[in-house]
Amino acid sequence: MAAPDSSALVLLECLVAGTTHRSGLSEYEPHLQLGQRLVLTREADSTYDDWAVRVLTADPEPFWLGYLPEGRNETVARLLDAGFPLEARLNHKAWEDEWLHLEIEVVLLASNQS
């Protein structure tokens, strides 16, 4: 795993929403590592949230973890739509009963990394 880039600008720190609805997440969770790079993709056709942004692992076969929280995702969605180089990093994970609490930070990468 690469070291975090100190030139990246942190745009948002948040929980991943919807983890309780992700089938297979409890089995996948041991593979999640702190500092792990995550991929953000737009779900522009979402019927529930005009600014929906999926959070996935950066694996060859990405695992869908959940979403950026509604109400905190518009800026990130607009930046993704405009083609800015964004990604996320896993900062914390913990089980709270049946809920996997995933804290991430969304970063704007330095232009030489895109």
Structural notes for this entry:
By secondary structure, the protein is mainly beta. The chain has a single domain (about 10-105), classed as Alpha-Beta Plaits (2-Layer Sandwich). About 10% of the residues lie in helices and about 40% in strands. It has two helices and six strands; from the N terminus they run βαβββαββ. It has a six-stranded antiparallel sheet, covered by helices on one side. A hairpin with a 6-residue loop joins strand 3 (about 55) and strand 4 (about 65). The protein is globular, with a radius of gyration of 14 Å. About 20% of the residues are buried.
In N-to-C order, the SSE pattern is: EHEEEHEE
User: Strand count, sense and closure of the main sheet?
Assistant: 6 strands, antiparallel
Give the helix level as a range of percent: 10-25%
* Helix run count: 2
Q: Structural class of the helix and strand makeup?
A: mainly beta
- Please mark out the parts with pLDDT under 50 across 5 or more consecutive residues, or reply none: none
The CATH C-level name is Alpha Beta
List the helices and strands and how they pair.
Layout: E1 9-15, H1 25-28, E2 37-42, E3 53-57, E4 64-67, H2 74-81, E5 86-96, E6 99-108
Task: Describe the structure using short key phrases.
Alpha-Beta Plaits, 38% strand, 2 helices, six-stranded antiparallel β-sheet, HIRAN, HIRAN domain-containing protein, hydrolase, mainly beta, 6 strands, metal-binding, 114 residues
